[in-house]
Amino acid sequence: MPSFKIFDIASSGMAAQTVRLNLVASNLANAETVSSSINNTYRSRQPVFAAQLKDALGQRVDKGQADEAVGVEVLGVVESQTPMRVEYVPSHPLANKDGYIFRPNVNPIEELTNMMSASRSYQDNTEVVNTAKQLMLQTLRMGQA
Fold first, then answer.
1. Which UniProt keywords apply (predicted)?
2. How many alpha carbons fall within 13 Å on the CB side of residue 45?
3. Of 6, 21, 70, 82, which one is least surrounded by beta carbons within 10 A?
4. Per the domain annotation, does 92 fall within a domain?
5. What pLDDT does residue 3 have?
6. In a domain, 126, yes or no
7. What is the separation, in whole angstroms, between the first and last Cα of the chain?
8. How many domains does one find in the chain?
9. Is the pTM of this model over 0.85?
């Protein structure tokens, strides 16, 4: 594995976790919104991650490298299919003709857990970059002595 490949891998992990953190923030910001229609109600959004296997497999075939490391890519964002929260509040200004309002299917506890996990993963990738940088600097200093 080339020496600088580790920076590409760690940066792809940090970029993926940034997407995840932004989606958590969006989900938490919209957790208590209200709608009069189930079609207009905000739905929880989650990222879909995948290892960059396609590129890695292509490199393995071409170069014959068996243990090529790969990064992470964001394949897309999916909306949760969990049912919306429906409440009977006929006095609410946004209640439909039957007196129901619709709230998003965002679970704040799950979102906070996602936030902690994403934050920790981002922190781990940062630590990988810092450790690799220190190792390279130590290697350069070996030639000075």
1. Bacterial flagellum, Cell projection, Cilium, Flagellum
2. 17
3. 82
4. no
5. 75
6. yes
7. 27
8. 1
9. no
